[in-house]
Amino acid sequence: MSSSEGTDDWKHGGVRVIPADQLDDNTAQTAGMSRAAAINFARVGAQKIWAGTVTIHPNAKTGAHHHGHVESVIYVVKGRARMRWGAALEYTAEAGPGDFIYVPPYVPHQEINALEGEDLECVLVRSDQEPVVVNLDITPAEAPESVFWVDHGHPHPHKA
Questions:
Q1: Class (C level, CATH) for 32-146
Q2: Residue 115 above 50 pLDDT?
Q3: CA of 60: how far to CAs of 16, 54, 84, 143, 147, in Å?
Q4: pTM above 0.90, yes or no
Q5: Potential cystine with 90: which of 19, 29, 50, 86 (Cβ 3.0-4.6 Å)?
């Protein structure tokens, strides 16, 4: 195909820009956070990914939940995220601006805004279009264990 072929299709079916003030909050929600979709099938025709934003207000935390078979990546834009996960939310780790958080399928987790005076703002990307949010009734562990491990090749300097 030459570079001029298919350009009419590319004009309306190619790159899309979703302005920040046009995100869609009509998506699955969890108590304590606000999710808004930017990229999904309904908005841009995406087939395999979902992307949007998450905002958690100061001192707020979400309810425990998981996303079924879907993998999630959270990128912290502003604030400090404290993640808790596990059957009793017994593990914890924190992330700040520029950090990425990976949440595997079916892992019960909870997002917490660790700062008192500012919103926690994140970008969220998921491996599927399904808006799977399974809210859970979990009694959290009293004293979660801090986890500093990244991977075998890049352990945290304070690894326990």
A1: mainly beta
A2: yes
A3: 33, 13, 13, 18, 21
A4: no
A5: 86
Tell me if residue 153 falls in helix, strand or coil. coil
Residues near 153 by beta carbon (within 8 Å), at least 6 away in sequence = none
Contact in structure between 127 and 73 (CB atoms under 8 Å) = no
- Residue spans of the domains in the chain: they are 32-146
Mean pLDDT of the chain: 86
Q: Are 123 and 63 in contact (CB under 8 A)?
A: no
Q: What whole-number distance in Å separates Cα of residue 122 and Cα of residue 29?
A: 15
56-80 b/e (C-beta count within 10 Å ≥ 16 → b): beeebbbebbbbeebebbbbbeebb
pLDDT of 30 strictly over 80 = no
Beta strands (DSSP E) in 5-144 are: 34-39, 50-56, 65-66, 72-78, 81-85, 91-95, 100-103, 109-113, 120-126, 134-135
- Do residues 86 and 108 touch, judged by C-beta distance below 8 A? yes
Give tens-digit pLDDT for 35-56: 888 988 888 888 999 999 999 9
